[in-house]
């Protein structure tokens, strides 16, 4: 009996030990002795994850320890013991730099524009889609414009104080300089960004016209104060921000309609050579580079408003009794030639140095078939835009002048360009224009008029947006980095 009892007790003891061992094994804790823990989600052959590079990391905090260790086990805040295992982690994909993302967006824009240039078609979603032979390629222009509206972001530097920075003249001869600055400061919501990291270009909103007014000494002909101001401004923004140094100024732009804009830009050689300079004085013989610089239309708004006579020009079949018209002072080398040959010489050629008191400037424009637009001391002339308003075909008498928006517009479709050496033959040249061609030129003037209108607030395809588009074209053609 005692033997049976001892045998039963022994068997029961071994059975208990064996049961404890089985429970211990099944619990999975024994597994820590023989293998690494791993996520079945990552290693399962039946699970199809995107191809990501995996990295096996074993750090000093991930050492394999024996189960049951009490000294080195990590403790969870809730008191539970954390088992140390080898960890397989997804390698973090490096987030692309913001400037890389911007450049990729511009690359997509370039590809989109090229595709339309090849196909030469466009899907119209607005009533003001450009058409006609005034454009080099209307489909390409429209796609580029839409991409600009979709993507283009401009950061306006906040540095600088009034009146020379953040302001400019909004009437008279340098109207466009002040109006553009004002719109960028207080409007342009679609294009302006307050986050410089999102910007494609950076605007330095100083006014050269106001520099001349406030810091230039009259009659000194010393432009060094202007150059010094520009130099100091670039120094401030390039020291405070990383953006100028990142691209050597290639994604920065200034805008000036004053004749001395090019001279002021010489205050910083990097700005002069690399940055986008938007200038009325777009003279290639004085350093204007059409590959990176932008020709700015010069517009003269007397009192800040367009003359009512030019708001609504007469119908096309209205009689225009004069062949041509010009009135202006003796500025530069071209006008003296024009006045020498044609002032008071021919009633068909209404050429004046100073307009008589009994004659009205805009009325004579509206009564003339051709409006003569000779350069003065500088190449640009507000007469070109005024002639477009009056639907008086501009006759451009200039040398080394890059005409505004010529990346997009075919100026030969709505103007006549005459070499200065041909001034003695000017009447002969104009009379040789057939009536059919003249009507076509005048019709095209009406088509391009919208691109030279200065609206407030701006409207699609108007002068403000055409200036932005010219800057946009320089930016998408400049691959930075």
From TrEMBL:
Belongs to the glycosyltransferase 47 family. Residues 149-430 form the Exostosin GT47 domain. Its main location: Golgi. InterPro entries: Exostosin (IPR004263), Exostosin_GT47 (IPR040911). PANTHER family: EXOSTOSIN HEPARAN SULFATE GLYCOSYLTRANSFERASE -RELATED (PTHR11062), OS04G0109900 PROTEIN (PTHR11062:SF337). The chain crosses the membrane at residues 6-26. It is found in: Golgi apparatus membrane. It comes from the Eukaryota. Keywords: Glycosyltransferase, Golgi apparatus, Membrane, Signal-anchor, Transferase, Transmembrane, Transmembrane helix. It is a single-pass type II membrane protein. One of its GO terms (cellular component) is Golgi membrane. This is Exostosin-like protein. The keyword Magnesium does not apply. One of its GO terms (molecular function) is glycosyltransferase activity. It comes from Corchorus olitorius.
């Amino acid at each position: 009996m005692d033997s049976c009892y001892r045998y039963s007790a022994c068997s029961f003891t071994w059975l208990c030990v064996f049961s404890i061992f089985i429970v211990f094994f099944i619990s999975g804790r024994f597994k820590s002795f023989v293998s690494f823990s791993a996520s079945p989600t990552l290693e399962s052959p039946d699970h199809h994850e995107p191809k990501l590079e995996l990295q096996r990391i074993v750090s000093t905090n991930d050492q394999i320890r024996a189960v049951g260790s009490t000294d080195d086990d990590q403790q969870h805040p809730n008191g539970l013991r954390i088992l140390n295992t080898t960890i397989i982690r997804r390698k973090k994909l490096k987030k692309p730099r913001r400037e890389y993302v911007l450049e990729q967006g511009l690359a997509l824009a370039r590809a989109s524009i090229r595709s339309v240039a090849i196909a030469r078609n466009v899907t119209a979603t607005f009533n003001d889609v450009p058409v006609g032979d005034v454009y080099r390629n209307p489909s390409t222009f429209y796609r580029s414009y839409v991409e600009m509206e979709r993507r283009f972001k401009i950061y306006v530097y906040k540095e600088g104080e009034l009146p020379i920075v953040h302001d400019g003249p909004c009437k008279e001869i340098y109207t466009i300089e002040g109006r553009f600055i004002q719109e960028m400061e207080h409007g342009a919501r679609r294009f302006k960004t307050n986050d410089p990291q999102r910007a494609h270009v950076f605007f330095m909103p100083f006014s050269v016209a106001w520099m001349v007014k406030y810091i230039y000494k009259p009659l000194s002909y010393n432009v060094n104060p202007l150059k010094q101001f520009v130099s100091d401004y670039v120094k401030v923004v390039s020291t405070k921000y990383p953006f100028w140094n990142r691209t050597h100024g290639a994604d920065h732009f200034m805008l000036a309609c004053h004749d001395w804009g090019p001279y002021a830009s010489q205050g910083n050689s990097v700005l002069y050579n690399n940055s986008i300079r938007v200038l009325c004085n777009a003279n290639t013989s004085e350093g204007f580079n059409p590959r990176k610089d932008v020709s700015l239309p010069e517009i003269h708004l007397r009192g800040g408003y367009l003359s009512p006579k030019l708001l609504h020009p007469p119908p096309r079949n209205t009689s225009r009794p004069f062949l041509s018209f010009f009135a202006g002072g003796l500025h530069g080398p071209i006008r003296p030639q024009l006045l020498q040959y044609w002032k008071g010489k021919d009633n068909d050629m209404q050429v004046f140095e100073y307009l008589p008191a009994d004659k009205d400037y805009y009325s004579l424009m509206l009564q003339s078939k051709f409006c003569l637009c000779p350069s003065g001391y500088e190449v640009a002339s507000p007469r070109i835009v005024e002639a477009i308003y009056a639907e008086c075909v501009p006759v451009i008498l200039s040398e080394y002048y890059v005409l505004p928006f010529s990346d997009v517009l075919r100026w030969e479709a709505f103007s006549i360009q005459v070499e200065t050496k041909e001034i003695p033959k000017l009447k002969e040249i104009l009379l040789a224009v057939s009536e059919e061609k003249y009507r076509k030129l005048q019709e095209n003037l009406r088509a391009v008029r919208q691109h030279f209108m200065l609206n407030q607030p701006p409207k699609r395809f108007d002068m403000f947006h055409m200036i932005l588009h010219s800057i946009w074209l320089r930016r998408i053609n400049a691959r930075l980095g």
